[in-house]
Amino acid sequence: MSKEVRNIISKLLAESSQFNANDVLVDAKNDHRRLHFLSDEHDPSVLQFDLSAFPKKILTDARNNLKESGTNTLCLAQGIIDLELNGRHVQSPMILFPLLAKIDRMQQRVSFQKAEDAAFINPFISSHFRKVFDIDLPQELVDNPTLDSLVSFFESKQLNVQSRQTIIGNFHHHRFDVLKELEELLEMERLNPAIGTLFGEEVVELPPLDLTSTNLFPADTDHERVFESVSRSNTVVQGPPGTGKSQVICNLIGKVLPAEQTLLVVSEKRVALEVIQSKLSQLGLNRLSFVAGSDRQSHDFLHDLKSTWDFFESYESSSEINLQLSKQYEDHLQMTLDLLNQPDLIGGISFHAFRDHTEGKDLSGFYSSNAPSIACFLDNRRIIQRIFELKLNESASFLRKSSLASDDFLSLDERISNWKDQLAILRSVFKLDQWNDLAQATRKAATCQVFENELFKQYADIFKPETKQRKQFKRLAKQYFVLAETPAIGSEWKVYPSLQETQSLLNQFQHGNFFERSRAKKRWKQLSQLPAENAIESLKKRIDAGKKEKKLDKCIAQMKKLGIHDPKTEVAIIQQSLSVYSEEKWNAYLSIPVEERSKITLYHNELNALHRELHATFKLTETMSISHVLDRVKDQFSLLLAERKRILSLDETELISLRDCADFASYELLIYGSNWTLFKERFPAFSDFEPKEIKSKVAAILEAQAHESRVHASHLLNQVHARFQAYHTLLNTPASKLKPDQKELKKQLRKGKSILVKEFAKTRSHPSLRELFLSEARHWITLLKPIWLSNPSSLAKCFPMEEHCFDCVIFDEASQLPVQHALGAIQRSQRMVIAGDEHQMGPSSYFQSGSDEVIDLLHQASYHFPKVPLLHHYRSAHPELIAFSNKHFYGGQLSAYPSAKRDQAPITHHFVEGATFENRRNEVEATAIVRFISNQLPRSKSIGIVAFSEEQLNCITQQLDSNTYEALLAHQETHGGFLKALENVQGDECDHLIIGFGYAPNNDGDFHMRFGPMNTQNGRKRLNVLLTRARESIDFFCSVKSTDFKLSDNESINLLRQWIAFSEQQAELSSVKFPHDLHPEVTGSTLTFYRIQEKLPQARELATLQSVLEMRGWTVEYG
User: Is the Cβ–Cβ distance between 675 and 376 less than 8 Å?
Assistant: First the structure.
């Protein structure tokens, strides 16, 4: 890892260490509004108070902190130490005890249970001592802190302490664990390359990740793109509210677990982790996960682990096979959609176009192999109709386009007269009624011509099939062609020696004595231009050539007996002609009576000429009357000439098909019927298809997916159970039968099991999760709990800073996670997925005292890793609820699905007349909201209530009478919901959202447009967060109109004005809007989508549409 990256981490550590003096861990002042100081006379062991006397804000904040981040911030602090921070005197709490609050509403009392065994030193003091005094607190003091031991230690350092001070409040101690993470990172020799990539260094390629294709939960096309990206690389998932991020995360868990990998899910928001845990519980997979974050993490984890252990000890594996039929069904539906989308599916037109054109037509019995395509027919429909109207269909079908197009066509009538005269003459000799008669006579003439010519007469014995001479010729011709290829005398010879002399010279060169060889060389010089060294080779070649010459002479002599006197010329001609004089033609010739041969030979030229000219001009069939064709064309020649250009625009198949039909109607049926028959032959399974079948095809996919998800979940449990049994089998296997690595594993498993069994029996004093994870128990922990869900601080406490501690980390709500809080999780993991929404609120800074914004993980990662957007919005039951955010934040890209239940407009604007905003309150509007809340409580739906300021929220709650307030709390406890100021809204959801704007003109009529958090740079994000919380309805209470807003250069204020204007226009129930620009036929709660494949060509997209709409009360049909 580069020095630059380490410098970045060092800078983040320095920035995070800039403690805010207003933090109660740093300075717990007596006048702090959110602390409750116990008097010196109060017994710290008795923590019980009247509810009216205890600050409600402390309880509310503690509950919200626990709900949102999973961290219990409610603590009892004892002892105060005087310190100096940046030149300022501060009083820091010394020791803290987590508290659990219990409210008795009947007695109107609140009591607190103190976790004595979870006491810890104020982490600010530990950090301050290390940073300022370069002193680490003694480890025994850190491990077992008591007030007395701390007082003694600090007094020994000459520091002023107040041991009797006791405080109850919310202390965000957990954030100091992140500082330790950063310090540990800087001490690591090797950093995960992904950290470098996150800060702009080169991307390190990851090995492919094999993800199973089965999903635990339905996945749309965007989700599938996420899975594809994750299989290749670290990935950023851009997920606006309600687009199924938690579903994507759960599916990723289900896809990674089969490879026996471990997963870590990190989020600052407890609710995000609980959503994932809840979804896993639907399939029984929650027992494989653990949500870290309690004050007694070790106790809670061991209790949970024991439960999982006991479960698998009595578990019976399922034997059901996952056939994964949904993929086959989806592929089949995709093929159907592809065919429906094919523009030239049936005769050059689409399926739906064909249905439109053939509606009410009976196509049975209509077929012609010559029929043109439907597309051609439609292009020339008017021309064809005119041809039938003029009754030119038959005569036009006789003519070839080449004849029509030629200049000679103008004189066709004269040529027809000549042909008729010629035909009359030939008919006196031959029977020539039909075209086949003329064709046969012409073929006979050609045959006679072949066997009556001079070539045949000269070599008749050779040409006749199966004769002895024909067979002899074939053998001799083959031999001749081989021998005739003998090379000519080479240029190296001066004199070409005879064979006898050649043989004599060769013997002298090879076997002669000195004198004989000398004489041979002398003679060689007279014969050849080559040196004597080449003599033997050349003489051998001459002997071989001589032998071939003898064979060739013999072959030629035999050919002369067959009448071939010039083989060089005649053999090739005869060879080429043999195929002409085939047995078939010879038999055809013999079948012609002898007396007829002379006539045919006599009129050979006339027959050929007439046949050639008629064939070039007309398209005639065998049984067609020649006279009829000639008469019909001649009679209608003037009309044909007039319509010539129109007829020429038709192709040959269209012209031929004209003759098969008596009228245009039958011609039209012939075209459609012929093309439909061809289509059915190509796609027999599709021949009876009706669009309404799409519904059952989608239903089959959804049913199979639901079944497969259950089977897949059971297979994941089977897999863990199999390994669980394998571990126990190994423990019971004698060492003599084990390999060395198995012996070592057995030793660790036995020790690990011993540790866990001992801890299962205890109720307190457990080792920390980090200690458990570093022990031999790790094998069992990673087996039974492969899924960990945690916030960054709990992660820092639970797990050692080990590279590849987890196979994959998934960050949820990453826009709210400071980048420095994520580095520990990244270091511990091999692969990461970062999910969040850039238009949600960013992280709040626990440390910084300045105004600099904290960089969030999502923002940083978006510039360095592949991004996949999620664009299917499922939260809002009515598209109107997401419409404003969709337009102003998400570019209109979100697809939302309407509900069939639409009794009233989903957004209601309540304008409050006569309200004023004085002393930061709007009493009149608060009264209106309180009255509305009372009317909503009987509904069994979750209710969220948000005021634009903390003061206005107090104004609303104070106007609630005690009974209504208690009823509201009980309702939210049962059905869910929240009661918050705008600045605290994040990650919440509700069915019905009630918003109180609060701001209004003052008593003087002045509207100052000072909207607290909305005026800040992040005001627009706060508005987006607020407006994306509701599932079913928004009731917006406002005491001003959009026209009351003045022009502003503040983008957030302008957006707020646009929202108010938008809500003002939502008074009436608008028409139902469907995603993907779909416009189905709506009949009650039934939707009929016509030509759905044109808007949704993907089977998965169509399955998503039908599934969501059916869940929202619609009956979906297709046409």
Answer: no
- The answer to whether residues 661 and 454 touch, using CB atoms and an 8 Å cutoff, is no
Nearest CA to 724 among 634, 652, 791, 784? 784
Rounded Cα–Cα distance for residues 74 and 330 (Å): 52
DSSP 3-state assignment of 109?
strand
Separation between Cα atoms, residue 1040 and residue 1042, nearest integer Å? 7
Query: DSSP letter at 362?
Result: -
Written as six digits, the tokens of 739 are 């390999």
Looking at the fold, whether 157 and 42 belong to one and the same domain comes out as yes
Residue 833 has phi, psi (to 5 degrees) of -125, 130
Query: Are residue 160 and residue 198 in the same domain, yes or no?
Result: no
Tell me the residue range of the domain where 79 lies: 24-171
β-strand pairing of 88-104 with 120-121: antiparallel
Give dist(CA 901, CA 591) in Å, integer.
Answer: 88
The reply to whether 104 and 145 lie within a common domain is: yes
Q: Work out the average pLDDT over 253-258.
A: 96
Give a yes or no: residue 1026 inside a domain: yes
pLDDT higher than 50, residue 661: yes
Strand partners, 290: 788
Mean pLDDT (the chain, rounded): 90
Q: Are 812 and 253 in contact (CB under 8 A)?
A: no
Task: Give me the CATH number covering residue 883.
Answer: 3.40.50.300
Cα–Cα distance for residue pair 45/86, rounded to 1 Å: 36
Geometric angle at alpha carbon 1109, from 1107 and 1113, rounded to 5°: 115
Question: What DSSP designation does 129 have?
Answer: I
**Is 410 part of any domain?**
no
- Phi, psi values for residue 170, rounded to 5°: -105, 115
- For β-strands 1086-1089 and 1081-1083, DSSP reports them as antiparallel
Model pLDDT, residue 1000: 93
Lowest mean pLDDT among 40-44, 668-672, 752-756, 813-817: 40-44
Cα distance between residue 39 and residue 49, in whole Å:
13
Residue 585 lies in a domain: no
Judge whether 973 lies within some domain: yes
Strands of 806-811's sheet in order across: 289-291, 787-790, 263-266, 806-811, 829-836, 235-238, 867-869
- Highest mean pLDDT among 71-80, 312-321, 437-446, 721-730 belongs to 721-730
In the chain, the amino acid numbered 88 is R
Helices (H) and strands (E) in the chain, counts: 49, 24
Tokens of 707: 């079944």
- Identify the band that residue 678 occupies on the pLDDT scale cut at 50, 70 and 90: very high
> Distance (Å, rounded) from C-alpha 21 to C-alpha 85?
8
216 and 139, same domain (yes or no): no
Write out the two tokens for 239.
């997920």
In whole angstroms, give the CA distance from residue 554 to residue 479.
11
What dihedral do alpha carbons 823, 824, 829, 830 form, nearest 10°? Answer: 40
Token readout for 1061 is 């204007």
- Domain count for the chain, please give it: 4
Q: Do 239 and 270 have their domain in common?
A: yes
SS3 424: helix
DSSP assignment letter at 282 = T
In this model, does residue 846 exceed pLDDT 50?
no
824 with 911, same domain: the answer is no
The CA-to-CA distance between both ends of the chain, in Å, stands at 60
Tokens encoding 870: 């999620």
Count CB atoms within 10 A of the CB of residue 939: 12
- 417 Cβ neighbours under 8 A, 6+ residues apart: 634
Query: In a 3-state reduction of DSSP, which class is residue 943?
Result: strand
CA dist 1016 and 841 (Å) reads 12
Domain co-membership, 99 together with 234: no
What pLDDT digit, counting tens, does each position of 579-611 carry?
777 777 777 777 788 778 888 888 889 999 999
Do 913 and 820 sit in the same domain of this protein? Answer: no
pLDDT band for position 254 (cuts 50, 70, 90): very high
